[in-house]
Amino acid sequence: MLRNLLKFEKISENSIVSINKILDEKKAEEVHKNRHILCSIIKTVIFCGKQGIALRGNSDYGSLNLNEETNKNEGNFRALVKFRVEAGDDVLEKHFKDSGRNTYISWRTQNEIISSTNEIILKDIVNRVNKNEYFSIIADETTDIAGIQQLSLAVRFINANSIHEKFLHLLQ
Question: This protein's superkingdom (predicted)?
Answer without folding.
Answer: Eukaryota
